[in-house]
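Minutes, project check-in
Item: structure for the 477-residue chain
Input as provided by the requester:
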Amino acid sequence: MWPSKSNEHTAEAESDSCSTPTEIAHQINDSGASFILIDPSLLPTLDEARPFLRRAFAPERVILLSKTPAAGSTTGSSYKTIHELLNNAPGVSERFDGDAADTTALVCYSSGTTGLPKGVETTHYNITSEIQSLSTGARHLLSGFDVTLGVLPFSHIYGLVMQFLQPITVGVPVVVLPRFQEIPVLEAIQKYKITHAFFVPPIFIILLNSNNVAKYDLSSLATVFSGAAPIGGEVSEAFAKKLDVVVLQAYGNTETTSTVTAGLTHEFLKRPGAISTVGKLMPTYQARLVDEDGEDHPERGELWVRGPSVMKGHLNNPEATKKALAPGGWYRTGDVCVRSEDGWYTVVDRIKELIKYKGFQVPPAELEALLLQHPDVLDAGVIGVYDKSQATELPRAYIVARGFEAGGNGEAEQKLGREIAAWVAGRVARHKRLVGGVILIPEIPKSPSGKILRKELRVRAEKEIEAYGLPPAPARL
């Protein structure tokens, strides 16, 4: 039942997790993009996506993110580079004042619980408000002293706003690496005297278990932010002790232009048990905790927030916008939080069904819809199962298979499970692969209305993991 193809753990986090050609095409088409800025190494992927694009994208509309011209795609065309454009630019800043401040500045794609990823319209005012909030309510960065490390993808709101835009606006350099790889990161911290880094939980796990950390001078590193997914208190405490740093946690969403709760360094240091919380409400935000009956609760409930950094809405999807934003401009986060008497928040559950895999969002409904296209799959339910060794959830599929009685032939079931996992792996981005296993069961538990009862699948998974463990890690297909 486990995918059998596996490798030894590698000291690399999948923060680059490239999307498939069809996923890329969906985002390009949905956004209405008229130019493509691309790393030369990804040109083959763009060529594979071209048959699915609504626009031809002639060579003059494809800009390489490199210093020197390079051969283009398989067509042999040559593209201009970003440096050519910048050298020919007039050098005059454009202002977005008045009504222009509320126009869309960027669109990041956030996976919802149903369908394809949804475009989140982030305005100029959203971004500037968030940057001001971070400069006040999160770790204070000082120009001339701090140097930060950027290894997270800029397509992720955490990587774009918190890791990149906020530091440069206060004159703090960001050392950018294309992805997380253990040795290059350790070398960069030592060489550039990095003082502050932005990580996701799997990176903490890799460095915590690394024998290479002691080989480098990391004494400049003072603080590390953890975001995008929950991190256990034991992991963050052990990491802080090993590297002699302060681990800071924050919470946010694409729809809120990144961070909603955070804290200052001295606040995390002084507060007992701070490693298990995500901090206090950031400046400019208001928050509510709402129970299942829609009533406000002082201590526990779904976190609703509003403020100048909440998105304009979901691009081309008014229905999704309506579901996400409650009357009064409140954004329903889908996360259940508890709030202490002095205003510190801890995320304890999630109403939304998203799987958080190494900081990336994986919508179960998208994988279920794909699985139902497989000729041997009659029904499917997808959940996330937690892997403590990697500090992340792993996507797992439960399926009802054509012509199979679950439990009737273990070897045949495992073979089919591996085949289906490989079939899915060829059609989705790496972070959406079923590395948590493919399990054959007689029936997918559902409510009378037909909704998949994921809670029952989670209970079943906990028992299976207790008895059999997880698939061989990292089970990269």
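Outcome recorded: The mean pLDDT is 86.
No further action items on this chain.
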